[in-house]
Amino acid sequence: MTNRRPASVQEVMAGLAHTGTTARVWKFGDDIDTDAIIPGRFLTINNPDELAQHAFEGTRNEFAKKVKEGDVVVGGRNFGCGSSREHAPLALLGSGVKVVVAQSFARIFFRNSINVGVLPVVCRDAGKIADGAKIRLNTRDGYIEADGKRYAVEPVPEFMQGIVDAGGLVPYAKGLKEVPVCTRLLR
Amino acid sequence: MGATIVEKIFSKKCGKEIRAGELVMAPLDGAMIHDITGPLAIQKFYEMGGSSVFDPERIIMLFDHQIPADSIEAAQNHMYMRAFAAEQHIHNYDINEGVCHQVVLEKGRAAPGEIVIGADSHTCMYGAVGAFATGIGSTDMGFALKFGALYFKVPETIRAEVSGRFPKRVGAKDLILAFAADIGADGATYKAIEFTGRTISKLDMSGRMTCCNMAIEMGAKAGIVAPDTTTWEYMKNRRKMKPFELKSDRDAGFAGWRSYDVSALEPQVAVPHNVDTAVSVSKVAGTHVDQVFIGSCTNGRFEDLKEAADVLGKKKFNPKVRVIVIPASRDEYIMTLKAGLIGKFVKAGALVEAPCCGPCMGGSFGLLAPGEVSLSTSNRNFRGRQGSTDAKVYLCSPATAAASAIMGVITDPREV
């Protein structure tokens, strides 16, 4: 897990959705908090690759050892609840996970993920997807396929899609001289 | 249709009517960074091409999670932030003042009607003074440092109307734990919670802070209490501003209503490993505890420590329990010291530490070994939150924590 340039979400989606690549599912339950994703004692680390070595430590120790580039984390309700630590999506990014599918997300984690270039995908049927399943995503047509079964996914809010398309908030903001304060944005 | 307090704050800031559900790039009155999320935020600020921050006077910087530096990495993070503060002419409270959220309010860095963000999920605590305040991540903070604005989806509001008088040894923490258990850990996701009703009107600032602090534990974007005479009294020596009216209209559109009567509320304990699991203390009474932590932004104020000291009386803490007491800030520490409570805690067997987050975030000190049990007045009991993932954390009020620390097992504070 060294010297890997994080792919943009577009590249990831392109790779996953249009080349027929299938990835492995790492399945988690409801209310997976950010302490579970990356425990507090590792928060002095700011580098995604180093954080990745401690992803889900104590919760699921084999994750950091066995996770592969392009694998997908699937959770239940309220994924990413708790702390605002961006180290959580960064630890996933460093692990090669660019997509998280869940029944629902906690607000700050959802936003942080989009900002750093991990795509959070809301799928009401995420609970039906099994650990170890082969998963294929086609968010363009609004579905994912896990072990041959199709499940509908919700589109990313339009404004946030702009950030996703830019590859995260940093590249999005880089091109901005100023921001349109107090103007309404696309929903 | 009328407007909610949150819609009014956004509308006033932007000079036009803004409704829940709208996405708006809103100007910021304050932005807080600390030693955990700050370094990454600064890094993102530079990566975005930032060279000077939008307004150094609106940025609040301090260190509270890992102080004094508990590792070389933490020391380097502090050094990095100090250099940024010097370069950008930002006042840095450094390690001297205490837990970020307490300091922001004490120093008057959040005020009624303002929009304040912080790179910490418990930023929602500033709603206690009638500000719209929410926690964000480091990249959003990098953006905010550069532009002084951030995009928000203006949240709908759930109104929690609280009535009744708290029974003895029952208070704001018991209320908010019961509330979390009622609506669940995602019961207010993307929404604001407005605390209102006669009980809230009578509640002191400390209790309001406890309630707003834990709004995030229900997934809320913000917790808020409309400013009243108690609020303006608190703001008096902190900010030069004239009191004004700010409250939800009667006919505002709310996303939900909850009503609670606290007159028969029992002391609550949230059991491992989620915050929305509160039960009456009687259900878990007798559970062995290895460590009791009284402190944090949720319950480390003078009022909290006074309540714990009242329960303690002339007794001693159980010698088999490690009791850690940490005032939330320097001001709270001094008040507690002047009241003679620090000496009292120390004599009773507690370890009193200087203001900081302490064991709450499980990254610094006071960590738990596998199999150990902690009872804590903080805000989260997630698996591994205070050390080993094989340890257990229970959450409660300062009164219940003190009673349990005396007995060595979880104890109803009314029975001590």
Tell me what the structure shows.
The complex is a heterodimer of chains A (187) and B (416). Chain A has 187 residues and is α/β, with parallel strands linked by helices. Chain A has one domain: Alpha-Beta Barrel (Aconitase, domain 4). Chain A is built from 8 helices and 7 strands, in the order αβαααβαβαββββαα. In chain A, helix 5 packs across helix 6. The radius of gyration of chain B is 20 Å and the shape is globular. With 416 residues, chain B is of the alpha/beta class. Chain B folds into 2 domains: 246 residues, 2-Layer Sandwich (Aconitase, domain 3), CATH 3.30.499.10; 148 residues, Aconitase, domain 3 (2-Layer Sandwich), CATH 3.30.499.10. In chain B, the strands form 5 sheets. In chain B, strands 15-14-13-16-17 form a 5-stranded parallel beta sheet. In chain B, strands 3-2-4-5 form a 4-stranded parallel beta sheet. A 4-stranded parallel beta sheet of chain B has the order 9-8-7-10. Chain B has 15 helices and 17 strands. At the A-B interface, helix 6 and helix 8 of A face strand 1, helix 2, helix 3, helix 5 and strand 6 of B.
In short:
Chain A is 30% helix and 16% strand. Chain A is of the alpha/beta class. In chain B, the strands form five sheets. Chain B has a five-stranded parallel β-sheet. In chain B, strands 3-2-4-5 form a four-stranded parallel β-sheet. A four-stranded parallel β-sheet of chain B has the order 9-8-7-10.
